[in-house]
Each structure stands twice: as structure tokens, then as C-alpha cells.
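Could you please review the protein record set out just below?
***
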Amino acid sequence: MSKPILRDSSQVNSQAVSETRQSNVPIADGRAADVEMARVLGTTPFHMALDSSGAGIAHWKHEPLHDVVEPMTHHVIMAYNGSMQRMERRSGRSVAIGTFRPGVVIIIPEGSSSRWDIPKPVDVVQLYLPHTMLERVAREADTATPTDLLERTAHPDPITSRLLLSAADSLEGNGALDSLFRHQLIELLATRVLAAHSGSPTSFQPTTGGLAPKALLRAIERLRSDSDADVSLAALASEAGLSRFHFCRAFKESTGLSPHAWLRQHRLEQAMNMLRDTDTSVVSVAAALGYASQTAFAAAFRKLTGETPSDWRRRTR
């Protein structure tokens, strides 16, 4: 059964036979990626999170496909999460035959159209990137990298595939942790596809130097806040007077952790205090700290401590 679509309002918001740059049709003629995917796949996403910036991540489980994917107003990047199978993609006179398997990516550039023949059911996680976002990421990173993406069909890229598949678990919740994780991941994936799948792939220059002490203090105060303070990546970067690209790198330079990892560690430290010093149930602790479920909280807690919340509580009291 498909789950509700999350709309995140916290942001101002086998090797292909040929891999060719696609000629874009006028974007006004295309549909949003989530709308076109729902049409062509004939189903609803298992999970999906969209934000007002136009970016989004969706997890689809669909039946065999033999149809044309029409032009979309997003670049669509896919990571496959199923058993290996052969597939075919036709774009005009160009035919690409590839093998879907973990570790490969599929890229449908904005405005392009192609016919897909996939003989078996598919489990896939998709990233939707507006072209304006790629342009912003390239601009903030001070790179001259072209922002036109290449068409990719079952192209080996285990880094992008692994990053995108890791998003699936964050699509169930809309709490601060899940939202911040998605914001960071989308920014990271946009940077990655520009570096590896644009017309002239290039390396992004590393940013050196951390946040100014006052900027770091403000960011940490915002992340620690128990109020409804906006802890989106856009809000954190704006308060520091930096682009999102540079804020993430400067924050990690100063703290050793990404903003999401810092917030996760802070929430788990809060959880330890509640488990040790109060009789609050584990499920209530998970809800109070913004976890989508008790299962998600227990998994994060065990990753940090090596124990379940209940076992840790019994041992420390």
C-alpha cells in the first residue's frame, strides 16, 4: 500500500550502448516528474517527500513497463534496488540496452523523452531536481561545470546509487531530523551528479576553514532549540550568511559532523537523559525527539550505543 506524500514546507521552498545529451523540449510542455511518473507507472509511490523548492525524492515499486516517458520539468535520477534484469530504452533513433542492478543509476534529463521496455517488476528510488537547483549548486560551489546532464542508462555509479537508496528510510517522517537529512542529501546528490554526469565532469574544490565562532554558536542554538525553530538547511545557511554548499562544509570543519549528524547525536543524548532520569516510555521518548517511529529511534540509538533503548535504560538505572 502506498503511503502519504510528505510535502516539506520548511524550505523556502549494463552499460548503455549510447549515452547522449538530449535536446530539451520547451519546459512548459512537460509535466512535473512526480505527476508524469504516476501517469506512466500507473500507480502511486510507496513513499515520497517533496518540498517547495521543487526538489523531491520518491520510492516506487511498480510492475513491468512498456511505455513512453514524456518530457518532464525535472531532471530525474534513479537508483535501482531489485534483482538484476535487462532493459531497453529508445530515444529517437538511439537505442540503449542495459542491465538494472544495484550500483547503477539512470538519468532522464529535464525535457527529454524516451520509450522504456522493462520486463519485470521494479523497485527504484528517484530524485527529482529542478534545473534551477543545479544552476544554484554550481554557482554556490564557484565552479564553471556545465549544468546540462547526460542521459544515463544503467550506468555504473555506486556512490550516487548508495546515497540515493539511503534516502528511502527518511521518507516516512517529516520531523526535523528526517527533513534536515533530506535537505542535506539532495544538496549532496546535486553536487555529485554535476561532478559525475554533466557535459564536462569535474571535481569541486574543497572548502577550507570553519564557521566564525558567533555563526557556529547561532547554528548550534538553532539546532538545540526545543521550539518550532526552522532547522532546514536553507535557514541554517541563511542565518550564517553562507550558501548551503559552503555552510555544510564549514559546519563540518568546525564540529567534525554534518548538521544532520550533529542534530542526530544531540537528540540521542537527550534520549539518554530521558531514559535514565524519567519513566517516560520508549515510544514517547521517540515521539518527543521527532523520530518517525519507535523502530527508527531504536535503530539510531543502537547504532550509537550498541544497545536497544530498553536495554540501555535497564543497565544505567
User: Anything to note?
Assistant: Confidence is low (pLDDT under 50) at residues 9-26. Residues 176-197 form the longest helix (22 residues). The two ends are 41 Å apart (CA to CA).
